[in-house]
Design brief:
58% of the residues lie in helices and 3% in strands. By secondary structure, it is mostly helical. The strands form two sheets. Strands 1-2 form a two-stranded antiparallel ribbon.
């Protein structure tokens, strides 16, 4: 019952600041389904958990009875495609991500790690629905099968191109942060503060500009050599540097992210050295995919 509760909302039914407090709540057997986390969960699922968490062994479901519950037999098998159906812009967002330049893709990965759980819950559920073997990574086959279950049909070649575009570290699979970055809706990431934090990760020398050398440093671990990195960095700079001064300022970075008007205060943002250094370390050579893969895992609370 405890495991089912955690699987459906991301945190345990009995929460406490200390082990003693947790065990005290376990003995009382009191738990609630908070509407902000359980509002979209079916009544069948809640009934199933209540029966698994009955205090009295006589009233508690046995394993055979649990396996034959209505939610297990009928409701849950049909629900796997629900999160995908609830996100009609998913495929368009994934396809759009493929066409973005390397700097914007990296910026979206940084922003994805900053979003709170409420902002990404739908995408987290979608990722879980697509991840059929539960290994925390998506293959092109898993995405194809998940989309087909949801009634979205794409050609194999189209899906392969989409998957290649999302797989920014070239590992052959798509981790959680890569998926979040690609699937984010513009309304989720187009915040000046979030974009400023991403901007400062690339601004290695802190001069409020992103230079060609700083772009090259971001690309060199994945570009296939220094020469290739330099060529791609020049392409990114040419695309984003609107005033042609050889550097990218925040106004140009904001426009690249999709901001329509000028940022309200280019240099007045809070500059947290701790957050930008942590995010910078996550994108440093050799650490990008591994450090960021679990950046937005379901929130864990102490408890049982």
């Amino acid at each position: 019952g405890v495991i089912m509760y955690i699987l459906l909302c991301g945190y345990p039914p009995f929460y406490g600041r200390t082990d003693h407090e947790v065990l005290s709540k376990v003995r009382r057997g009191k738990f609630v389904f908070e509407d902000k986390d359980w509002g979209r969960v079916s009544a069948d699922a809640k009934h199933f958990i209540r029966m698994l968490l009955q205090m009295s062994p006589k009233d508690r479901y046995t394993a055979p009875k649990a396996l034959n519950h209505k939610w297990i037999v009928h409701t849950a098998p049909r629900a796997s495609a629900a999160p995908i159906k609830a996100n009609p812009t998913l495929v368009d967002n994934l396809r759009s991500f493929r066409s973005q330049n390397k700097l914007k893709k990296a910026a979206l990965q940084i922003i994805a790690t900053q979003l709170d759980d409420a902002s990404i819950r739908g995408l987290r559920d979608t990722f879980t629905a697509l991840d059929s073997n539960g290994d925390g990574l998506l293959t092109c086959t898993e995405i194809k099968n998940g989309l087909e279950k949801a009634g979205v049909r794409k050609t194999a070649s189209d899906l392969e191109l989409i998957c290649d575009g999302i797989d920014t570290d070239g590992s052959g699979v798509i981790d959680y942060t890569e998926f979040l970055a690609a699937a984010l809706d513009k309304r989720s990431y187009l915040s000046e503060q979030a974009c400023w934090t991403a901007f400062k990760v690339f601004d290695l020398d802190g001069d409020d500009k992103i230079s060609l050398e700083e772009i090259r440093a971001m690309l060199e671990d994945e570009a296939g050599g220094e020469a290739v990195a330099s060529e791609r960095a020049a392409e990114v700079l040419k695309c984003v540097d609107r005033n042609g001064d050889g550097e990218i300022d925040f106004k140009e970075f904001w426009a690249m992210m999709g901001g329509k008007s000028s940022p309200s205060n280019e240099k007045g943002k809070e500059k947290s050295s701790a957050s930008t250094s942590v995010l910078g370390a996550m994108l440093s050579p050799g650490r990008r995919s591994g450090a960021s893969a679990n950046a937005n895992a379901s929130p864990q609370r102490g408890g049982a």
